Amino acid sequence: MRDRLRLAVPNKGRLVEPTLALLHDAGLIFDEHDRSLVAHVQNVDLDILFVRTSDIVEFVSDGVADLGITGRDLLVESGSRLPVVRPLGYGRCRLAVAVPADAPFEAVEDLAGLRVATSHPTVTRAFFGDRGVAMEVIGLSGAVEVAPRLGLAEAIVDLVSTGSTLAMNGLRAIADVLESEAVLVTNPEAAEQRAADVAAIDTMVGAVIAARDRKYVMMNAPARQLRELEALLPGLESPSVIPLAHEGMIAIHSVVGADDVWNLLPRLKAAGASGILVLPIEKVIP
Ligand code: AMP
Predict the structure, then answer these.
(1) Residue 241's CATH number
(2) Is the confidence at residue 267, as pLDDT, over 90?
């Protein structure tokens, strides 16, 4: 067994920046300047391997890396049964069937006997196969969205996030194949033999993700308003209530959903709170 755990992460492409931000936020200290190979984490027995997003599943399956971060779409496409330790909440997109905007196809069945271009041939074959729609699947490694215009295929199966790339290429989606986001995967042997190390990384990464959609809210209020304010604050558990130097006044601290802040603050104020502060949270371990 190696001394140091290895985590494989993307070295290029759209998952790089959010992945590095996650690892730094989790508290791993490393120098990412040499993304071509390995970064030595200074404060944990961990090495970060920078590899192509599409190679990560293989690195983890082979045991070259113990853990990896990649897109769920690539995991499914590889046919691998690597366990997903945790979805990471970024790199969200869907794999969709799209056709030229002016083509007469409305449903997947309308494509029977035609050609579909994709960089996810395995998932695509399974999708059409499950629906009993015979298609010729043309595997491409990139620029899938131009295939219909080039006369290479009548339809595509490609990753879509906002839909603007589809629109720009005169395409429209007619069906969803799968939903994807970045995921943390682990090698089953490593997960068993180094369970504590893997759990520590998962806990810290999970703590960052949990913190991202929460805020810490602090306020002062007359003690008699406590019940009313408490009813507005479904925190992680119960809010902290602290007596203040001024008789009859309290401070209330609570964790709230980041999305709720907008609606919550005016209601807290109306219920008697003052000096309301909203603070970011770095990590949450429930
Ligand atoms: P890359 O091709 O290296 O930029 O990374 C591709 C991975 O990023 C995909 O396999 C997806 O998991 C993820 N991703 C998220 N949104 C998109 C999108 N709109 N287009 C392509 N890939 C996306």
Answers:
(1) 3.30.70.120
(2) yes
